[in-house]
Automatic annotation (TrEMBL):
It comes from Cupriavidus phytorum. GO terms for biological process: carbohydrate metabolic process. InterPro entries: 6-hairpin_glycosidase_sf, C5-epim_C. Residues 97-245 form the D-glucuronyl C5-epimerase C-terminal domain. It comes from the Bacteria. This is D-glucuronyl C5-epimerase C-terminal domain-containing protein.
């Protein structure tokens, strides 16, 4: 397994620095999404953070380590730092805005293994680019928290036998929702099972393993892969499209092509025959979706909404 293949699977390949006009340490390659800032009131998102960190590594790979990239890493980290919360030895990426999941209104703050681990992926890129140890240490804390079922806020759950989930969203809500969805619960916390979120949270664990050679995450990686071995064949809903979550299988993944990419990538990285077979099936499903992805998603999402609305009348 190569780090470059993991980055490709994660969709955060360090880019070439060509056509990147750098006027100083504040000139982060991709900036911060203005639409996201307007909607949620913050610059930081794990995805934007990871992309900007990957750009720093891409520059370093092309030009060598530099004071400029070390300083830019600090600028990027300063945007993320206010959104990282400590509880004892645990570290959490936290979001403090209103959000919803399958018509469940989350009460802020909310957390998730996806947020922790995509942020950790960016930190691993910063460590490789700068050699500054604090980035590796924080990445390790975020990843370790994500796989600890006994954590104060559990970002994963282990139901045994292919049910070790890395949850994209861990949140509190005032709604029951059991009439239209089935969501894991741990005390006051609801834990969303989302296919793409689970795989995106798994890949940084693999990257840490390949970077350090340490076996700390081997058990979690093995169990998270087993979860996809069990569940990926069920992501294809009625042979028509890719489901977003086992919590409500009728609801479509909003990135149908991404679903195929993640399934194929995981099959290639692991060499797992069951996952590879599921990816081959997914490729056939995508052939029927390609060119009309928006139409398929809209129709499936409407069907899911009708199921939700019907459940409210019972």
């Amino acid at each position: 397994m190569k780090i470059e293949d993991i980055d490709k699977a994660s969709m955060v390949v360090p880019p070439s620095p060509r056509q990147w006009l750098i006027e100083g340490r504040e000139s982060v390659r991709y900036g911060w999404d203005e639409g996201y800032i307007k909607k949620h009131g913050q610059k930081f998102s794990p995805w934007a953070f990871a992309k900007n960190c990957a750009a720093v590594l891409g520059h370093t790979r092309a030009n060598g380590k530099s004071t400029l990239m070390t300083e830019m890493a600090e600028v990027i980290m300063a945007v993320a730092q206010p959104h990282i919360e400590s509880i004892g030895h645990e570290r959490y990426v936290v979001n403090n805005f209103d959000y919803s999941y399958l018509w469940h209104k989350m009460r802020p703050p909310f957390y998730g293994a996806f947020m922790n681990n995509v942020t950790a992926s960016g930190l691993l890129h910063l460590y490789e680019a700068t050699g500054v140890g604090k980035y590796l240490l924080l990445a390790d804390r975020l990843l370790m928290t994500s796989v600890d079922t006994r954590a104060a806020i559990p970002l994963c759950s282990d139901g045994g036998d292919g049910d070790f989930w890395l949850h994209e969203y861990v949140f509190r809500t005032d709604s029951d929702g059991s009439a239209w969805s089935e969501i894991n619960s741990a005390d006051i916390w609801r834990q969303a099972r989302i296919y793409n979120g689970h795989i995106h949270a798994l890949l940084p664990l693999m990257r840490m393993r390949e970077m350090t050679g340490l076996p700390d995450y081997d058990r979690a990686i093995r169990k998270a892969v087993a979860t996809m071995r069990k569940w990926l064949p069920a992501q294809v809903h009625e042979g028509r499209y890719f489901s977003y979550s086992p919590d409500m299988p009728i609801f479509p993944d909003y990135g149908q092509k991404r679903a195929l990419h993640l399934a194929e990538s995981l099959g290639q990285l692991t060499g797992d025959a069951v996952i590879a077979d599921a990816a081959a099936t997914a490729k056939g499903v995508w052939a029927g979706i390609e060119g009309r992805e928006k139409e398929v998603i809209a129709a499936a999402a409407d069907n899911a909404k009708q199921k939700y609305l019907a459940s409210l009348k019972k």
